[in-house]
């Protein structure tokens, strides 16, 4: 078995006639944060379910922590923690009880689990809520509890499916902060997301998936530099096609998505000069990001 | 899974399918003890609400027992050699085992599986789907043992059952609890929503309840219907329980036990396959 923590090779999955994962290959090395970035319906959750041995692929090989999946999945799961997209906490138990009960599934002795609980509550900033029922927690608190619960077996690998979807910005930043501290402890993280900001902040490497296929792979900054390599001016509020004809000679490249015009420019000054003072227009001059990479590669925006 | 050969074109590689038997193995229990942590989780939740749950479990059969036993008993007199209420007590133990195990397997397990997604959380640990299903079935049977034993105790105290032969009913109650829980799990595996359980209640539970010797002896039934009733588990459970509670000898113990055991094992494999299709595809 290879030394990679996670390995996906040419994995294929059909749901009936629909091809959901199409020859996907990637690997995750120990200690890194790897992202699967793509819009809804790209096959990210299916990929994670196959990785956990919960869904069988139709072709390809998967290995997790040195175990072949799905044959050795239950052994691999001993060393991993999972934060799913939708919470599955026990509503009948308090915060503390949720952590204690979950440790039992790993065969951990009750004394060991009890010893870990205070540290986990502190990590999740839920000390004051230790005896609160799950129903009393906000969405952000529930996600932090799920994250703490996923650490009860002191895993080497964390697998997170859209960890901050549905959370307000403050909760999102707290989760990102917790994940960064886990990375600094040497854990390996695989996460899926459709927020490019999350991928840019957390991931050492990522791959962009669309309709089950990998369309790009690499470190976020490298991808942006190689695919775009310059700044972007985003313009909305006016008919994009007419504006494009006007601004195309001044830009390296232009792209239209919906009602927004994207101008990729090495030198923003001429375009800014043209747009200044026009009413009914809003425009933003910013560095390129992964959204632009996705738009470049697929012709459509990632957020829906 | 073997890697496809180097020169297989990409589209042809996609038509490979894993072997059927290995797929099913993933849905079976990983070992003999994993299910205990699932059972224990359910026990801990139950313990928080134990008093209310017990009252609920016992009230219904008790009302039937005393209402029908005394009320009908006055009109009917002796049935099958004993007072009607003694005859009915054994039937009530059997029916409460059926109802407790079935309702826990259906409504409660469905909540955990589909609404709370507890099964999903557990399947992210080293436990498998089979471990969860076994844990849920044994838990439902545990609730059935509790309610069946409690009614039997009340019947014994009031003199409607003979001691110590009634203790022989306990292993039958456990086996019957497993059988009804296992059978009801098939319904849970197929149910799109809670409303679906009404089908099972109306089409299976109620006929079984009325035709299995709970309220009147099986001998009253026409031959054909009696044969059909004997194909179902409740009739066998009630035969064994009644013999134990009334201290009577019984023939064909082996057949009764074998039918109950069959209803534990076969439905388990059926529902394991159905759950695998539902949750692991």
Q: What are the main properties of this structure?
A:
heterodimer; A: 304 residues; alpha/beta; Rossmann fold; Alpha-Beta Plaits; 2 domains; 4-stranded antiparallel beta sheet; B: 281 residues; two-stranded antiparallel ribbon; globular
Description:
The complex is a heterodimer of chains A (304) and B (281). With 304 residues, chain A is α/β, with parallel strands linked by helices. In chain A, β12 and β13 form a beta hairpin. Chain A has a 6-stranded mixed beta sheet with strand order 6-7-8-3-9-10, sandwiched between helices. In chain A, strands 2-1-4-5 form a 4-stranded antiparallel beta sheet. In chain A, strands 12-13-11-14 form a 4-stranded antiparallel beta sheet, with helices on one face. Chain A has 2 domains: 213 residues, P-loop containing nucleotide triphosphate hydrolases (Rossmann fold); 58 residues, Alpha-Beta Plaits, CATH 3.30.70. The model of chain A has no long low-confidence stretch (mean pLDDT 91). Chain A contains 11 helices and 14 strands. In chain A, α3 crosses α4 and α8 packs across α11. The longest helix of chain A has 16 residues. Chain B has 281 residues and is mainly alpha-helical. Chain B has 12 helices and 2 strands. Chain B has a two-stranded antiparallel sheet. The longest helix of chain B is centred in the middle third of the chain and has 32 residues. Chain B is globular. The two termini of chain B are 17 Å apart. The N terminus of chain B is likely disordered. Chains A and B meet through β1, β2, β4, α2 and α3 of A and α3 and α6 of B.
Q: Enumerate the strands of the largest sheet of chain A in spatial order, edge to edge or round the barrel.
A: 6-7-8-3-9-10
Number of helices of chain A: 11
Main-sheet strand order of chain B equals: 1-2
Report the helical percentage of chain A: 25-40%
Based on the coordinates given, report the CATH architecture of the largest domain in chain A.
3-Layer(aba) Sandwich
Secondary structure category of chain B = mainly alpha
Distance between the termini of chain A: 39 Å
Shape of chain B: globular
Mean pLDDT of chain B: 89
Number of strands of chain A: 14
Order of helices and strands of chain A: EEEHEEHEHHHEHEHEEHEHEEHEH
Largest sheet report of chain B: 2 strands, antiparallel
Average pLDDT value of chain A?
A: 91
């Amino acid at each position: 078995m290879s030394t990679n923590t996670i390995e996906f090779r040419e994995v294929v999955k059909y749901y009936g006639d629909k091809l959901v994962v199409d020859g996907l290959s990637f690997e995750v090395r120990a200690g890194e944060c790897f992202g699967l970035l793509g819009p809804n319906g790209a096959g990210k959750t299916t990929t994670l379910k196959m990785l956990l041995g919960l869904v069988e692929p139709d072709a390809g090989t998967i290995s997790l922590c040195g175990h072949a999946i799905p044959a050795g999945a239950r052994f691999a799961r001993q060393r991993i923690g999972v934060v799913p997209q939708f919470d599955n906490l026990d509503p009948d138990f308090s915060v503390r009880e949720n952590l204690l009960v979950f440790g039992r599934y790993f065969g951990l002795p009750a004394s060991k689990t009890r010893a870990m609980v205070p540290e986990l509550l502190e990590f999740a900033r839920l000390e004051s809520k230790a005896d609160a029922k799950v129903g009393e927690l906000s969405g952000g608190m529930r996600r932090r509890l799920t994250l703490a619960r996923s650490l009860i077996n002191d895993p080497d690998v964390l697998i997170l499916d859209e960890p901050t979807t549905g959370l307000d910005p403050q909760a999102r930043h707290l989760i990102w902060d917790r994940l960064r501290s886990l990375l600094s402890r040497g854990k390996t993280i695989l996460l899926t997301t459709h927020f490019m900001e999350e991928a840019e902040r957390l991931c050492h490497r990522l791959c962009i998936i669309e309709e089950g296929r990998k369309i790009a792979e690499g470190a976020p900054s490298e991808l942006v530099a190689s695919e775009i390599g310059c700044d972007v001016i985003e313009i909305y509020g006016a008919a994009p096609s007419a504006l494009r004809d006007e601004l195309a000679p001044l830009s390296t490249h232009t792209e239209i998505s919906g009602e927004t015009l994207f101008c990729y420019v090495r030198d923003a000054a001429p375009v800014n000069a043209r747009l200044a003072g026009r009413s009914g227009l809003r425009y933003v001059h910013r560095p390129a990001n992964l959204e632009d990479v996705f738009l470049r590669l697929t012709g459509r925006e990632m957020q829906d | 899974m073997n890697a496809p050969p180097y020169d297989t074109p990409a589209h042809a590689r996609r038509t490979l399918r894993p072997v059927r038997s290995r797929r099913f193995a993933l849905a079976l229990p990983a070992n003999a003890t994993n299910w205990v942590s699932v059972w224990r989780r359910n026990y801990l939740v139950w313990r928080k609400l134990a008093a209310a749950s017990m009252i609920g479990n016992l009230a219904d059969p008790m009302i039937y027992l005393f209402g029908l036993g005394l009320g009908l008993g006055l009109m009917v007199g002796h049935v099958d050699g004993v007072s009607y209420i003694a005859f009915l007590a054994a039937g009530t133990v059997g029916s409460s085992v059926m109802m407790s195990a079935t309702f826990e397997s259906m409504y409660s397990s469905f909540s955990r599986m589909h609404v709370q997604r507890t099964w999903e959380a557990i399947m992210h640990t080293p436990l498998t789907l089979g471990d969860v299903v076994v844990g849920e079935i044994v838990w439902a049977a545990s609730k059935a043992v509790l309610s069946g034993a409690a009614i039997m105790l009340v019947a014994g105290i009031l003199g409607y059952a003979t001691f110590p032969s009634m203790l022989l009913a306990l292993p039958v109650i456990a086996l019957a609890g497993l059988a009804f829980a296992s059978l009801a799990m098939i319904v849970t595996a197929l149910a799109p929503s809670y409303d679906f359980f009404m089908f099972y209640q109306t089409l299976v539970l109620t006929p079984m309840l009325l035709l299995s010797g709970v309220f009147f002896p099986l001998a009253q039934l026409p031959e054909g219907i009696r044969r059909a009733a004997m194909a179902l588990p409740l009739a066998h459970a009630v035969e064994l329980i009644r013999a134990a509670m009334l201290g009577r000898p019984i023939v064909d113990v082996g057949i009764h036990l074998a039918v109950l055991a069959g209803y534990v094992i076969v439905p388990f494999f059926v529902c394991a396959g159905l759950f695998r299709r539902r949750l692991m595809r």
